[in-house]
Design brief:
Elements (H helix, E strand, L loop, with lengths): L12 H4 L4 H9 L5 H4 L1 H5 L3 H4 L15 H21 L1
Length: 88
């Protein structure tokens, strides 16, 4: 799945991967659609310590926190990989 992403396209999500292509590939592969099971690294990044570090959408006491945005941030971190995080 990671190999489908063309990060040379910058921040244009539709250019990085065509809409629906990732879901289509998951469906064809028969992999469980539960991402925390399919991608153990997402599960590893699931915790309050990480939720506090995702920028302006981070978890803060008394503030609305979107678990969907947190999942997307974790997916982005896994997709970009360790080398990206070391260079950012």
């Amino acid at each position: 799945m990671i190999d489908l992403l063309d990060w040379s396209k910058g921040v244009d999500n539709d250019a990085v991967i065509e809409p629906g292509e990732g879901i289509g590939r998951l469906y064809q592969s028969g992999i469980s659609m539960n991402l925390t099971i399919s991608f153990p690294k997402l599960f590893f990044l699931d915790g309050l310590a990480f939720a506090r570090e995702i920028g302006e959408s981070s978890w803060q006491p008394g503030k609305y926190f979107s678990v969907d945005v947190f999942l997307y941030a974790r997916c982005c971190a896994v997709a970009n990989g360790f080398e990206f995080s070391k260079n950012s």
